[in-house]
Write a structure and sequence with these properties.
The complex is a heterotrimer. Chain B is mainly α. Chain B has 13 helices and no strands. By secondary structure, chain C is α/β, with parallel strands linked by helices. The longest helix of chain C has 18 residues, at 206-223. Classes of the chains: A mainly alpha, B mainly alpha, C alpha/beta. The interface between A and B is large, with 44 and 43 residues.
Chain lengths: 313, 326, 372
């Protein structure tokens, strides 16, 4: 490297590098934040999502803790038939004398459990499905995606009804059926993310360092797909709850002696004018659960990818 | 374009066949359609049971049964129904027309409403209008369709009471017997359609309006909209000619691709309003272990979905010059 | 040169010779801020300049200096949450808070804009002919056929071959360079008085850049418009601009004729920019990269924003932000407390040319060679 000497004697300037205040003493920039912190902060600022989170937690507590502590059990027959809401029976009773508060809480527990099971199963299966398809491409990709197309071609409630009819009426089997039907949605999302990430430089770098395919999929692709998957997950979970209640309403979902919010509505539809409490409370709970989950999903979407407030450069 | 369409249909055929096979197998394994006969007290005579067994091909193994059903399809024979007097083909055909008018009208209403509300929401972002429509959209998305339908049914009854006339109907697709005269018949059909169409439309509208809003917002921030504004065009011209025109393109695809879930919604809606449509047909078929009816239903639905998907793709090619199917 | 008491008037960058009626666009104390999570982003902080009829004014600065935002403010195309103050006058008419209907009369007719990315500037679903004709019909009541004729004429002017056939093409059927020429044609359509070209060549290959600059020159000659040429590339400015303004952190730091700024710069930032240009005629000369990064324009501390990167900074630089003051002449202004120190200096005198950490580089080379 050649050295070029500055012209020292004739220049009135101080030599380069002096007369300058050290940069560290001047605070010109804003503090750095990690990606996770940014996401969390944006989520916490989303009012609707925060309120929904609180409400959802309250509903969960009510369903499990409240249900366990409540004086009546679901399905327990009391001597009070067809009672409108009172202090003793906040949601009234039905024709046989079952306390509706206990019944609704039980149906809520079923819906929540279905939600969790669908969430876990559909995500795990769907993510791996899509990630494998997207990563390997070619034959594997088209076969796996044809399979996904297959499921998505059909009206889910029809297929769900057939499968549920075949495999029985307990809530976890229904949940598995729904999970299998929703996994393809997740696989589409995960495949899309993988395809967009596949060419990125850090994948090449990981490969150059000798990482195996499995390691690349698990350690690199999946965390980056997390944002999209989480957002889609909330949509799917809300849809799963609606699907389960619809199935139960039609008679193909959860069967007696178990109960579901959909089943409660189905039993109450003829009594809408005479005993409205049997109809409104179950419906209300379905709406609240699905609504809060949707708002949380909206908050997550904004947290991971804030669109609206982006400043045009 | 024709070659593209043919290619797409050709690709769809194996998928449809696979789906129909799975459903057929499910139906075959689900239960014995003759169980009610066997459970009767006194039980049905053995020769009846034997005859039914043969008629319903219960004596044959799965694979040959499936292929003979497929072969039958080629000349319009959809297989034997559990109810011997029913011809699956013609029954399904009749019910198809009942359901399709519900679906078609609901889709049109939902689409128009979604575009209007979605655009309004996007243009007036962060105003009261936007927040209200967004909240209502979320509400409808969270609402179970059957619950909403039952409420609407009740609302219809109240409305009729209030105006002291039967304006909207809450049961069935038409009055039985139908009123005389074509005019009166049309009014009768429409009167029966009002409530179920609203029920079916509201939920599709909710998701489509959110999508339109998002699409509009994205387009409104685009460079070409900015360039259009820099030409000095009026705000409304830019919004309609440049923003809306491009924002609507993905909406057509979303709409057509939602057909499967709309059919599902129709199943529920028809049940609430007791329509004798495709929904009722399917649920009966499942309950009575009517393999051929259920499989035929699924095949028909699959074909409808494939056709709609194809229309969606072709429409996209028409609307977006960047996609041309040579 | 005698001190002119009017030198510090509101618009110190106004050209002093020539009658006031020669000025087509007058920007006074323009300030633009964007609210954000961290505070107000002060993208533009009190910019003032005058644009004379027919002149080419170059605005130079790095990303984030506020040069694009300045022009978007002139056109009224800033996003809704922008906070704008100051004044922008076209032909005496105030544009900044004018109603949309008034602005639309000026936009595309008297003041036109060319945007940076030709790949996204044109609407993909309409033909080229339609989009150019639309610009004409926005301000003139002519038939579609007449507008298309004019469109073909404009495409020919920007040297697009087979203009008649091109009218029916869609944007995706054209290359980036051609699309940018279409955008130039749209800007020219109504013979505007001002054309603002916002980084017109940044998104294009170097080989195409020269063609686009040529098209811009043609556009300017054909319409007689004054042109504002915004870029971060000094090479693009040289040879095109009559006057040059250098922006840093939302403010003007040097203003003058092209000769003034290129040959006798009086602000260290300008020095740095000039010194970082590779030169074919002096290949052995060391480049002078400017160390550090531009400051965040949120919550700015007092003093000159260039201070942390400036080799000449002294105590006063941290306390008082220098105002634009005349240096070599009344129309050559620089915002620097130490502009006198720059007389007769070359970039190599001011900046270090040795900024690479050679030891770390050698270490890295040894490590990777071992792994090959």
């Amino acid at each position: 490297m050649r050295e070029v000497a500055p012209t020292p004697e004739t220049s009135p300037l101080p030599a380069p590098g002096t007369g300058r205040v050290p940069a560290a003493e001047r605070e010109f920039t804003v503090g750095e934040r990690s990606q996770a912190q940014l996401v969390l902060r944006r989520f916490l600022q989303h009012r609707a999502a925060m309120i929904s989170l609180v409400v959802l937690v309250l509903v969960v507590l009510l369903a499990y803790v409240g249900g366990a502590l409540w004086k009546y059990h679901a399905g327990e027959i009391t001597p009070d038939n067809s009672q409108p809401p009172s202090f003793d029976h906040p949601f009234g009773t039905d024709a046989v004398g079952k306390d509706q508060f206990a019944q609704v809480l039980r149906g809520t527990r079923i819906s929540l459990q279905v939600a969790v099971l669908v969430a876990v199963f559909a995500t795990v299966v769907g993510t791996v499905w899509g990630a494998v398809a997207g990563y390997f491409g070619g034959r594997a990709d088209s076969t796996l995606m044809r399979l996904a197309d297959l499921v998505l071609t059909l009206p889910l409630i029809a297929v769900a009804a057939m499968l549920a009819h075949n495999f029985g009426g307990t809530w976890y089997l229904i949940a598995m059926v729904i999970a299998v039907l929703y996994a393809p949605y997740v696989s589409r999302v995960s495949r899309g993310v993988v395809l967009s990430l596949r060419e990125k430089e850090y994948i090449e770098a990981a490969k150059a360092l000798g990482a195996t395919d499995a390691r690349i999929i698990l350690r690199h692709l999946v965390p980056n797909a997390l944002g999209s998957i989480l957002v889609n997950l909330t949509i799917l979970v809300a849809l799963a709850i609606l699907l389960e209640t619809a199935l139960s309403y039609l008679g193909f979902g959860v069967q007696t002696p178990d109960t579901s919010l959909g089943l409660l509505v189905s039993e109450a539809q003829t009594a809408l004018t005479t005993r409205p409490w049997l109809f409104y409370f179950p419906g209300l709970f379905i709406i609240v659960i699905a609504l809060t989950i949707n708002f949380i999903g909206d908050g997550l979407r904004d947290a991971f990818d804030p669109q609206q407030r982006k400043v045009r450069q | 374009m024709l070659a593209f369409a043919v290619r797409r249909i050709a690709i769809s055929i194996p998928i449809l066949l696979l789906a129909s096979f799975i459903v057929f197998a499910l139906g075959v394994s689900s239960g014995n359609p003759l169980a009610p006969l066997l459970a009767k007290n006194p039980p049905a005579p053995p020769n009846v049971i034997a005859a039914e067994t043969v008629r319903l091909h219960l004596d044959q193994p799965l694979i040959p049964r499936y292929f003979s059903w497929l072969a039958g399809l080629l000349h319009g024979d959809f297989g034997p129904s559990v109810v011997s007097t029913v011809n699956i083909g013609s029954e399904l055909g009749a019910r198809f027309w009942v359901t399709i008018r519900l679906i078609a009208l609901a889709m049109v209403i939902a689409l128009v409403l979604a575009v209007v509300v979605g655009v309004l929401s996007a243009v007036k972002q962060y105003t009261v209008t936007d927040y209200t429509t967004t909240f209502l959209g979320f509400l409808f998305l969270a609402m179970p369709s059957f619950w909403l339908a039952i409420l609407l049914k009740q609302g219809g009854i109240e409305f009729n009471k209030a105006v002291d006339a039967q304006v909207v109907y809450t049961i069935g697709a038409t009055s039985i017997p139908p009123p005389p005269g074509t005019g009166a018949q049309i009014v009768d059909v429409l009167g029966h359609m009002v409530l179920p169409t609203i029920a079916l439309a509201l939920i599709s509208y909710a998701s489509w309006s959110r999508f339109t809003r998002a699409s509009m917002l994205e387009v409104m921030n685009s460079d070409y909209v900015r360039l259009a504004r820099s030409k000095g065009l009026s705000r409304s011209t830019v919004m309609v000619k440049h923003a809306l025109r491009t924002a609507l393109i993905p909406l057509t695809t979303v709409t057509a691709l939602d057909i499967a879930s709309i059919i599902g919604g129709a199943v529920v809606t028809e049940t609430v309003f007791q329509w004798k449509g495709m929904g009722d047909f399917l649920l009966n078929a499942i309950r009575t272990e009517d393999v051929y009816a259920a499989s035929s239903w699924l095949l028909l639905t699959g074909v409808i979905v494939v056709v709609f998907n194809l229309i969606a793709d072709l429409l996209y090619g028409v609307l977006d010059p960047r996609i041309r199917y040579a | 040169m005698t001190e002119d008491p009017l030198a510090d008037s509101i618009t110190p960058t106004m050209p002093r010779n020539g009658a006031a009626s020669d000025v087509v666009l007058e920007v006074s104390d323009l300030t633009v801020g964007f609210p954000s999570d961290d505070g107000l982003v002060q993208a533009v902080r009190g910019v003032s300049y005058g644009l004379r009829r027919g002149e080419v004014l170059g605005i130079v600065g790095e990303s984030g200096s506020g040069k694009s935002v300045t022009s978007l403010a002139v056109m009224g195309l800033l996003p809704g949450n922008a906070k704008v103050s100051g004044s922008v006058r076209f032909g005496g008419k105030e544009l900044l808070r004018a109603p949309e209907a008034e602005l639309n009369k000026v936009r595309g007719r008297n003041v036109a804009m060319i945007f940076q990315d030709p790949m996204t500037s044109l609407n993909p679903v309409y033909s080229i002919g339609f989009q150019v004709a639309e610009a004409v019909r926005a301000h003139h009541n002519v038939s579609k056929a007449a507008a298309l004729d004019r469109a073909a004429e404009l495409l020919e002017l920007v040297r697009i071959p087979n203009p008649r056939q091109r009218l029916e093409n869609y944007p995706h059927e054209m290359s980036g360079g051609m699309r940018q020429r279409v955008v130039i044609a749209i800007a020219m359509a109504n013979n505007p008085d001002v054309i603002i070209a916002d980084e017109p060549t940044t998104a294009l290959d170097v080989t195409v850049q020269a063609q686009i600059m040529e098209s811009l020159q043609l556009a300017q000659q054909e319409t007689g418009a004054a042109m504002v040429l915004i870029t971060h590339d000094l090479g693009v400015i040289a040879g095109q601009a009559d006057r040059v303004m250098v922006m840093y952190a939302g403010k003007l730091v040097e203003v003058g004729t092209a000769e003034d700024v290129f040959y006798t710069p009086r602000m260290p930032y300008t020095f740095g920019l000039l010194g970082s240009l590779p030169r074919l005629d002096r290949p052995s000369e060391r480049l002078t990269p400017i160390q550090g990064a531009p400051p965040s324009v949120v919550n700015m501390p007092p003093g000159c924003p260039f201070t942390p990167r400036c080799p000449l900074s002294v105590a006063v630089c941290e306390e008082v932000e220098p105002a634009l003051a005349p240096t070599t002449g009344p129309e050559h202004l620089a915002a620097c407390h130490r502009s006198d120190a720059l007389v007769g200096a070359t970039p190599g005198d001011v900046f270090e040319t040795d900024v690479v950490d050679t030891e770390a580089l050698a270490h890295f080379v040894r490590k990777t060679e071992g792994q090959a």
